[in-house]
Design a protein that fits this description.
Layout lengths: L19 E13 L3 E8 L2 E8 L5 H6 L5 E10 L14 E12 L16 H6 L1 H4 L3 H23 L3 E2 L16 E4 L7 E4 L4 H9 L4 E10 L10 E11 L3 H18 L5 E2 L5 E4 H8 L13 E2 L1 H4 L5 H8 L3 E7 L7 H13 L6 E6 L2 E3 L8 H12 L10 E7 L1 H19 L6 E2 L1 E5 L4 E3 L6 E3 L10 H7 L9 E6 L2 E8 L4 H10 L4 H15 L6 E4 L3 H8 L30 H6 L19
Parallel strand pairs: 3-5, 6-9, 11-18, 12-19
Antiparallel strand pairs: 1-2, 1-4, 2-3, 4-5, 7-8, 9-10, 10-24, 13-14, 14-17, 15-16, 15-17, 19-22, 20-21, 22-23, 23-24
Helix pairs in contact: 4-6, 4-16, 7-12, 13-14, 14-15
């Protein structure tokens, strides 16, 4: 017999009754029933109930073993009586009668319990992550993560993608976030950078003659944490393809994402193929952002012209100054009490807006502060604009309005759309709704300086190539850039790449970068492009976010085995840590630490 186990703790069933087995695992729970002690033994695979009689010489050993001690037990498998069967466990029809017991490793008093549903602070959980990972929900999330990655790998290789690895120690690159730098011992004063993404390397692979590349790529960015972004490091499904259009990229990745989400949906629906494509400008207008949650059925409409020169003076004056007016429908809200509208108005003020104006369609007319000052033909125009994108807005419904400069109006109308949906309980449940956001602007203007900047990805191909760069207003140029969004969460950005050195230099010139700067920062890629680069493109959906959504977890930390805290600290391993002076010396480094802040207090002189 194997020294540790003949079966796992999730394997024994009624067919194993009246046989002998050996199990090893952790004590999950103990229950002392006087003459009998029940021990729930747990391993990675499940849980088995084990029983020991008080007459056994091993009883005292079992009694003294604390929860989470590691045991090896041997004994006969017995059928449970009908009244003790646990239908919630795969092993619930049997129990192991302990004849031999070895305490492989006794546990000390636990700082946090593994069994049960008690909640603990982030500091406690991350400092004792090895215990936290034993808990059912967290353990299941990590198993899900592994299965999702395996499924992705299989689907990518089935499409002919080659899994390849790109360097971890590389050169610093200005890609939007701060690099993590690694000092070089043998090149004093020089630093490697951990890659923010394999962007340049995957493009170089296409130049090198490979056709379809992918990897589950680690990426490193020195940026702050948030619920859907882990500080320090994250993983993405990085892929690139040669000789492709934007539609080719979509056709390759959509079946992968759709298939993975269907495989692990657990009864939830997944939007069908092909995924909906929404131009960026349309997304900003109708959803108020470029990450639309399509589970929300409300669609924003532009009603600026209905207020131009209207009797509602506040909006009319602002429209003359360049403001726009957005309308957010509220189906069925006409019957809501006044407190419903007042609550939303108060919310808007808390968000920094002047309020949230509204009209109510009822009895063939309109009510509300705006409706009283708006001509009938204008309210009819509002209704028509809404019905062009929403079905059957009319009597019994209400409409909320946002007025402001275009960027501010888009942002706040998006927030209002979400708030109204939540207040009315309209969000569709149990579904994953995907869409592509396409036709991003190539450039944008920095408000404070008026400087033209790249809006999304500087390595993207402008729609129209060199001709549009030389002839169009930069703010009117669109790029072959795209994001894939699911339920309001951006999973990935991507693009058809700019593979022409002349077009790249011109694109950077418009954004204020001279050829010398581009050559210095991206010389390796430019050099490769000058020796024959194929058209190519790709994307990089985030693995952590995919698993977070499938696990239905609100925080990305719950699907990462060893996450950092909000301050980018590893509380378990003690990173980042101070290093010895001798290590700094061999790296030719000296510390220039900030001076400690002097605390106010009494003068002790």
């Amino acid at each position: 017999m194997h020294p540790y186990r003949t079966h796992t703790c999730g394997e024994l069933t009624i067919k194993d009754a009246d046989t002998q087995a050996r199990l090893s695992g952790w004590i999950h729970r103990k229950r002392d029933h006087g003459n009998l002690m029940f021990i729930d033994l747990r391993d990675h695979y499940g849980l088995t109930q084990c029983v020991i009689d008080i007459s056994s010489p091993l009883f005292e050993m079992a009694e003294s073993a604390r929860p989470e001690s590691v045991l090896t037990v041997t004994g006969n498998i017995a059928r449970r009586s009908d009244d003790t069967i646990n239908a919630n466990l795969p092993t619930g029809q049997v129990e192991l009668m302990i004849k031999e017991l070895i305490v492989e490793n006794p546990a000390e008093v636990l700082p946090m319990q593994v069994a049960g549903e008690a909640e603990y602070s982030d500091e406690m959980r991350l400092s004792h992550r090895f215990l936290d990972l034993r808990r059912d929900s967290v353990h299941a999330n990590i198993v899900l993560r592994s299965n999702v990655i395996s499924s992705i790998r299989r689907r990518m290789t089935d499409q002919g993608f080659l899994e390849m690895q790109t360097p971890i120690l590389t050169a610093s690159s200005p890609e939007g976030a701060r690099d993590y730098l690694v000092p070089s011992r043998i090149h004093p004063g020089k630093f490697y950078a951990l890659p923010q993404a394999p962007q340049q390397f995957k493009q170089l692979l296409m130049v090198s003659g490979f056709d379809k590349y992918f990897q589950i790529a680690p990426c490193f960015r020195d940026e702050d944490a948030r619920a859907d972004r882990s500080p320090g490091e994250f993983y993405q499904l990085d892929f690139e393809m040669a000789y492709v259009t934007q539609d080719d990229v979509f056709a390759a990745i959509e079946p992968v994402l759709h298939g993975v989400f269907e495989e692990f949906a657990d009864g939830r629906k997944v939007s069908g193929l092909p995924f909906q494509q929404i131009p960026y400008a349309e997304s900003m207008l109708h959803y108020g952002n470029d990450k639309p949650d399509l589970r929300n059925p409300l669609i924003i409409a532009d009603v600026t012209e209905a207020f131009r020169g209207s009797g509602f003076g506040l909006f009319a004056k602002n429209v003359e100054k360049g403001a726009v007016v957005r309308a957010i429908p509220a189906p069925g809200a006409a019957d809501r009490p006044r407190s419903f509208f007042d609550k939303l108005n108060d919310w808007a003020r808390d968000e920094g807006a002047g309020g949230l104006g509204y009209i109510v369609f009822a009895d063939g007319g309109t009510k509300g502060p705006i409706g009283k000052n708006l001509e009938a033909d204008r309210t009819q125009a509002i209704k028509q604009a809404l019905n062009a994108v929403n079905p059957d807005i009319g009597d019994g419904d209400a409409v909320f309005f946002v007025c402001g400069q275009p960027a501010d109006a888009a942002r706040f109308s998006g927030l209002a759309r979400t708030r109204v949906c939540d207040e009315l309980g309209l969000l569709e449940k149990g579904v994953f709704k995907f869409c592509w956001i396409v036709d991003y602007p190539m450039y944008e203007m920095e408000e404070d300086t008026g400087k033209i900047e790249f809006s999304h990805n500087p390595f993207s191909m402008p729609q129209g190539g060199m001709e549009v760069l030389e002839s169009k207003d930069p703010l009117d140029i669109l790029a072959y850039q795209y994001d894939i969004v699911c339920n309001g969460i951006e999973l990935s950005s991507g693009a058809i790449r700019n593979h022409r050195p002349d077009i790249m230099l011109k694109a950077f010139e418009i954004a204020g970068y001279g050829a010398d700067v581009v050559e210095e920062q991206f010389g390796g890629m430019l050099k490769a492009f000058r020796f024959g680069a194929p058209p190519h493109g790709g994307s990089a959906p985030g693995i952590d976010r995919i698993v977070m959504m499938l696990a239905d977890e609100p925080n990305i930390r719950e699907v990462i085995a060893f996450p950092m805290n909000q301050q980018a600290e590893d509380l378990l391993m003690g990173a980042p840590a101070v290093v010895e002076d001798s290590r700094l010396k061999e790296l030719f480094l000296k510390l220039n630490l900030p001076k400690p802040v002097k605390k106010d207090g009494p003068d002790n002189n």
